[in-house]
């Protein structure tokens, strides 16, 4: 069962962090050439398709992470340093995502629905900052997860 939990944990992390990498390093640069009335609705469609995957990834990461903490490591008290780092960083990432979802993304959707492209663009900038922050944190967390057992 632990190998299944590790595989699901890894896949959820790859989906979330890989999606952020693609969004920031590829799609943002390609979409930047589009006029705002085209770019904002495109991002609305992208978020509508990507964020359900993020929600699923967050749930899978939390469930499998705690499963591994308590079944493999015997609880938080015996968790090695890299496990504590991944645990804490993961909750920081989730907090950033929850803020993104309930604040700038909510305002972005409302602005887009009302046709207020400048306001939607302003919220896109906030979303970009939060996703970039989470991307950097997520890459660090992935490196910790991949290398921590060898420290």
Features of the shown structure:
151 residues, 5 helices
Describe it for me?
With 151 residues, this protein is an all-alpha fold. It has one domain. It has 5 helices and no strands. The longest helix is centred in the middle third of the chain and has 36 residues. The chain is elongated. The model has no long low-confidence stretch (mean pLDDT 97).
Give a short synopsis of this structure.
By secondary structure, this protein is mostly helical. It contains five helices and no strands.
Which sequence of SSEs, written as H and E, runs from N to C? Answer: HHHHH
Q: Structural class per helix/strand content?
A: mainly alpha
Biggest beta sheet summary: none
Q: Count all strands and give the number.
A: 0
**Alpha carbon gap, first and last residue:** 25 Å
Low-pLDDT windows of residues: none
Tally of discrete structural domains? 1
Proportion of strand residues: under 5%
Residue share in helix:
over 70%
- Gyration radius over CA: 17 Å
Globally, the shape reads elongated
Averaging pLDDT over every residue, what do you get?
97
Can you count the helices?
A: 5
Secondary structure: elements and pairs:
Blueprint: H1 2-31, H2 36-71, H3 81-102, H4 104-113, H5 117-147
Helix pairs in contact: 1-2, 1-5, 2-3, 2-5, 3-4, 3-5, 4-5
């Amino acid at each position: 069962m632990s190998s299944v939990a590790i595989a699901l944990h890894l896949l959820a992390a790859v989906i979330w962090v890989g999606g952020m990498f693609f969004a920031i390093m590829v799609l943002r640069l390609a979409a930047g050439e589009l006029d705002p009335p085209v770019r904002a609705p495109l991002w609305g469609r992208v978020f509508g398709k990507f964020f359900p995957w993020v929600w699923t990834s967050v749930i899978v990461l939390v469930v499998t992470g705690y499963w591994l903490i308590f079944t493999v490591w015997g609880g938080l008290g015996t968790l090695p340093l890299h496990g504590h780092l991944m645990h804490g960083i993961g909750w920081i990432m989730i907090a950033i995502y929850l803020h993104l979802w309930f604040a700038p993304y909510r305002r972005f959707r409302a602005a887009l629905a009302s046709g207020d492209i400048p306001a939607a663009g302003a919220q896109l900038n906030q979303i970009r900052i939060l996703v970039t922050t989470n991307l950097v944190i997520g890459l660090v967390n992935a490196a910790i997860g991949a290398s921590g057992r060898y420290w």
